[in-house]
User: What shape does this take?
Amino acid sequence: MKHAALCKRLGYHFLQPQLLQRALTHRSYSAAHNERLEFLGDSVLNCAIAKYLYDTYPDLPEGDLSRLRSNLVNQQTLAILAQQLNLGEQLLLGEGERKSAGFRRPSILADGLEAVFGAVLLDADFSAAEKVVLGLYVPFISQTDLQALGKDAKTLLQENLQARKLPLPQYNVVEIKGEAHAQTFVVSCEVGQLGLITQGEGGSRRVAEQIAAERAYQRIKENS
Assistant: This one.
């Protein structure tokens, strides 16, 4: 099968491979694109995550459950999970999107992953789609600080340093690689008083800063 490696990572093999092909097709590539499947997948995802949180955290009130669900099904989390699947490499994009590195764009990655969930629903049933969703999300949730969920890495790092009465980190662009239409930024994050310097790399300065901040935050947590 053309997408055998992706199916293995998903833990699901399609009886109708054309559904997966449609799920991976961006509107810039073909009129037979993935937006209707994305619509289905969004509903599958919300229901699967809502049920998981309801069952797993019986003492959490509705407000906290809603906050957790909102931050688990948002574009940022979906893009992270899509990157773990190497989904961007599988997407069918028009020439313009390919040249502008659309395969790394969080919105395109998130939409593609939701479309995959919708494709599983149509290929099998809700139970199969739910299993795929939870197969990706449960490991992610187990490694996530739920109290911090919804806060970006730069905010978490800033709050941690402020709590220690330490100065805010300094971010500097170390290198810009690639052509103008598909640049990659390398950014450093320096916490001087802790002697800590980390680096992040991404398709924009903001993304690279977030990755560098995340690495700094994790290092501080490991050493605290």
